[in-house]
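Re: export button greyed out
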Amino acid sequence: DIQMTQSPSSVSASVGDRVTITCRASQGISSWLAWYQQKPGKAPKLLIYAASSLQSGVPSRFSGSGSGTDFTLTISSLQPEDFATYYCQQANSPFTFGPGTKVDIK
Amino acid sequence: QITLKESGPTLVKPTQTLTLTCTFSGFSLSTSGVGVGWIRQPPGKALEWLALIYWNDDKRYSPSLKSRLTITKDTSKNQVVLTMTNMDPVDTATYYCAHRPGWSGYYTTFDYWGQGTLVTVSS
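Workaround output, generated via the alternate export path:
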């Protein structure tokens, strides 16, 4: 089975910072990747699908890129509401999630 | 608008079978491409995908849990049921159901989620 890894596992950042999170698949998955944001006690929220397509209603400061095995989620200017945990997910069965990256306040 | 809600027991004993129901509104599970999935999250840990059922009754399961899982749908009731056998304390988690949009084609993403239900496995 394809394994998903994320780095870093956590990052401390300030409002206005540019934040980049990396997701790596153990085998090539083309652009079959999604990104989610989860806040404590809440269900995950879809941010990005097909590696780089922004879900409706998601602010444009979020962007995704990559294909094959290496993917990135970038937050261009971190806002207070962006402090959360971010997960990547392989979009082809089995729909494996990555271990998560926690973005917290510096 | 699309809503989903999980229901079931909050406490189960080891070796028992867990049955969870996802009741949804705002979409039909007979629409081409649509699906409903189950995902769980142990306290303080990452998300783990469990199962997915498609509009055409095709099903997918997590390879590591396949022998213990069954997913079914009742289109007339707008419900999807997940059963997990032989429950163990390590299965303690918040269980979510989520909507797979019909527009996603070959991609499976989950664009609407239920609030989740915490299931504790303990004697």
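The CA atoms of residues 12 and 106 of chain A lie 5 Å apart. The button fix ships in the next patch.
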